Amino acid sequence: MESLESMLEELDTPNPKESGPEPEKQPEAQEPNPQKVKEKKKKILIAVLIVLVLLIAAIIGGVVWWNTRPAMDDTMQYWFDKFAEGGTLAGKTRQELQGMLDKIMDGGMVNVSMNSVVVFDDGTAEGSLGVENISANRYYVRVVLKNDADGSVLYESQGLKPGQYIDKIKLNKDLPAGEYACTATEIITDPETLEDVGQVDVAVKLIVKE
User: Fold this and answer.
1) Domain ranges of the chain
2) Chain centroid to CA 19: how far?
3) Is domain 79-208 given the CATH code 2.60.40.2550 in the classification?
4) CA geometry: angle 202, 82, 86, nearest 5 deg
5) pLDDT tens per residue, the chain (210 residues)?
6) pTM for the full model?
């Protein structure tokens, strides 16, 4: 009987070899390194600040461009000068203005006045070219000012509507003191077709004092 009972006990006792491998122990969770966490947050903050700075710079650049861009006509093909002002240049008498109007016949002629002598205090200062497209004209005009000596462009305007003028201009080059013979070409554009229909050359003398 004892041997039978012992045999039954052996059968009930599990064999460690047959029970299979012991389960692997899970690694204990490690607490994050405070220094590494701090450095990671700092890098993220720097990246966010860089993106914000670039975004602000882009917005400012867009606003500046929008406020300083030349105007465009309804066809989006012809640029008007952003420095053009409405009205007439001060200093012209009523008789002079009437004389201009008398020269315009049937809208076929264009009268654009400008100063024949332009004085600059130095090569970077402003001078009064006084380009005016009087309101009685029906055409757009723009002006290109060239140095007769070498053909270089010293100034170029965008378009002026009838009734607009540009008084003060700055030269594209810092010219040394002296007198310069120049030619101002008035380019005439049809406002309906936006084709250049003619041009007029005007002799202009530039005087740079210093």
Assistant:
1) 79-208
2) 80
3) yes
4) 75
5) 555 566 656 655 555 555 555 556 555 556 667 777 778 888 888 888 888 888 888 887 766 655 555 555 444 455 776 667 776 666 555 555 444 444 443 445 566 788 889 999 999 999 999 888 888 888 888 999 999 999 999 999 988 888 889 999 999 999 999 999 999 998 888 888 888 888 888 899 999 998
6) 0.56
